[in-house]
Amino acid sequence: MDFELLLLRALKSLIGVLGLLLAYLSLKAYRKSKSKNMLFLSIGFGIITVGSILAGLSFEFLGFTLLQVNIVESLMILVGFIMVMYSIYGID
Known about the structure:
The chain is an all-alpha fold. The chain has helices at about 5-35, 35-60, 65-90.
């Protein structure tokens, strides 16, 4: 097995774990404060994390090319960042 592929799998796994932890913590903060900002922050982190996990699974098990996987992941990251920006600037 190539070292680079093993490293990519390890990094994607770490991104998934940390992303889910961030989404959980921000959702927990939303439940405590009832602030819509925290809700949108949690959604943003969730979308980014799901995009990364979906990209890895699509490459590993569904036979998508790296270009296709990167396009899907980039779109999910873009939407997630828009949600995070909205949580910071969009609601009072």
